[in-house]
Design brief:
single chain, 5-stranded antiparallel beta sheet, Alpha-Beta Plaits, 227 residues, 3-stranded mixed beta sheet, alpha+beta, CBS-domain
């Protein structure tokens, strides 16, 4: 999945020649998650909601314009913007972007083309939507969680067993995160299964993988097993 498919393209910006008051007005009018500062169409800085809150009462949950001194209103945006612009290109993957935002502890970043021009904004909310919508269909299917030995064919064995029970694969994900050494976690979502055969399936799968949970959103049931 690429950033260009999930970013917001409705981007508002301010110019390097604008004032702090201009920036505050943009935030009050459009409520952007991030406000890029541009010069000749290229990103040279970034202003966040937090930056503007610091001008008044930093503890407030909103921009308290009454607390901003009059002399600050007339200053240029370069006095409050961050000059270190953390950005990604449109062809970055959502996985790479997620790692970047988590590592830098930021809520989002601009998306810049090869000329440094702002073409979009990508936020944690956009990334969460990307992962959610691409991994499943809301309310559909049964989600299985497995702990399997990290060996060749370990996932194939699980899939083969599911197919024997006429399960159709919707999504699959494998991760080493929080798995014991020599193991991996595997998450598989299926649909069009005969739910009366879940017990039989559970027994058969138990010989090749440790079942962590079975969540059936359609039926509203979930079975969580101790590791």
């Amino acid at each position: 999945m690429l950033v260009k498919d999930w970013m917001s393209t409705e981007v508002v910006t301010v110019s390097i020649g604008d004032t702090v008051q201009d920036a505050v007005n943009v935030f009050m009018r459009h409520n952007p998650s991030l406000l890029p500062v541009v010069s000749n169409g290229k990103a040279v800085g970034l202003i966040t909601y937090r930056d503007l809150r610091r001008l008044g009462d930093a503890k407030a949950a909103w921009i308290d314009v009454r607390q901003i001194p009059m002399e600050v209103w007339r200053k240029g945006v370069e006095t409050i913007m961050s000059r270190s612009v953390i950005a990604v290109p449109p062809d970055y993957t959502v996985e790479e972007t997620s790692e970047l935002l988590l590592e830098r502890r930021i809520p989002g970043c601009p998306v810049l083309d090869h000329d440094g021009r702002v073409v979009g904004i990508i936020t944690k909310k956009d990334l969460l939507k990307a992962f959610t919508e691409s991994s499943t269909l809301p309310g559909l299917g049964i989600l299985f969680g497995f702990l399997v030995q990290d060996r060749e064919g370990c996932i194939t064995d699980v899939l083969r067993t599911l197919r024997r029970h006429d399960a159709r694969l919707l999504a699959i994900m494998s991760s080493y995160a929080n798995a014991p050494e020599g193991f991996r976690r595997v998450y598989i979502r299926c649909f069009q299964m005969d739910r009366r055969k879940i017990q039989e399936l559970r027994t058969e799968l138990g010989d090749i993988a440790k079942i962590l949970f079975i969540v059936d959103r359609k039926e509203g049931t979930r079975e969580i097993y101790a590791e």
